[in-house]
Amino acid sequence: MDSNPTIVPEIGNEISTGESSETQTYFFDFKTRFFLLCFVLLALACLLIRKYYLQENPQNATKSVGNMDKNGENMLKNFKDFQRNYLIVYCLAMGSDWVQGAYLYALYQSYQFEKSQIALLFVAGFLSSAFFGSIVGSLADKFGRKRMSLAFGFVYMASSITKWFPSFSVLLLGRLLGGIATSLLFSVFESWMISEHNSRGFDSELLSETFSLSSFANGIVAIVSGLVASFVVSLFGVVSPYGVSIILLGILIYVVNTTWTENYGSQNTQLQNTFTDAFRVLISNRNVFLLCLIQSAFESSMYIFVFLWTPTLEAGDDNKAEAFPHGIIFACFMVSVMIGSSVFNIFIEKKKWTPEFIGTILLSLAILSTASVIFMKSWYPITIAFFVFEACCGMYWPCFGMLRSKVIPESCRAGIMNLSRIPLNLMVVSLLSQVGKQDNSSTFVLSSMFLVGAFVLHRFLTPPPAEELQHSLE
Predict the structure, then answer these.
(1) Could you please report the per-residue DSSP string of 43-111?
(2) What is the pLDDT of residues 89-101, one digit of tens each?
(3) What is the pTM of this model?
């Protein structure tokens, strides 16, 4: 997922670790064969959809770039080089996160911490992201997105180093640093890319391709990271994925430092004014405010899914003797995300649908897939509903990335993106405190309510032309 989203694998494996440690998964049992078949079918569908998109739209980028400059081939090459460079950095950033998340709970368990202590460590990370996120975004707009991308590498590296110390206070510090890094991960890279894309004169329509490729690549990175993490753990123990993460972060720092140029939001504004400007735009600009609420609602529903997919499948299982193959199921989810991102590309390029219309479709499908789980008793249809929801997530990331590029002013982009994550992090902390205290159906009802709220708010979202955005700051 992307999950979003760095904390997704941490929480998901927190739930599944306790189950899988007591049961043995046999490669040829029925559940394994079923999900292997699902993976093969989903992978084939993904390849066919991707092939269809590439065959139907081979010249789109050339036409878009050619419209901007007489020397279209050179401009296209510049765009592809820029896009490739960004995707390399993006994959390194996401890979550094995916590779370590799956074993975080197991690492804490290996240090003999109580469940209450582990829960506190998780909550500390979310609260850190909520608190410091409002600050680091403004720092990026003021002092530069490249600098803060480098800061992400160093901060997350420091957080990874703390995992080698079986001290609660040191690990708590690591979670606080991890929360700061998460805030940077979900704001500064995208902010740098959008600003650089516009400053180099590339057509704004080409952003959809970069966002879609980012979502598609993230699915591949998640699967590969899981395999790498499992391999190094089998050789060196549960702390070893954090060494892999440090290596990836070192490469990221080198690539960003040597290939990226600096860009800013409001460089000439005082730091405190950068924060207040971002907050003022957030509460005064109707479209920005609505977009932030929609994102918080959808991503909260996403985290409910992460918390509950394992116990929900197990609750619908009559054969308790066979364990669910969590790794293969996770791979199926990631391929579903890749399918969603490819479908988004087809909608944008072939159907010429707007991100606003695609958002309506994906929210509708997400509501149907989540609400249907409430009434399902068997894990077979629940699995299909989960695949559909993950495909919606694959459409969500590029779709709302496009909407953010249209709605959020450049001068305070990173600040607003981090401020908008504060309600999300607070919701996640609240959800963490409720896991296990109510049945799965009741929690999915809450998830459906979040999505219905997002759908209703989305109907009122009418992004203005880009030239009108700066009026929010005047």
Answers:
(1) HHHHHHHHHHHHHH-TTHHHHHHHTT-S-HHHHHHHHHHHHHHHHHHHHHHHHHHHHHHTTHHHHHHHT
(2) 999 999 999 998 7
(3) 0.83
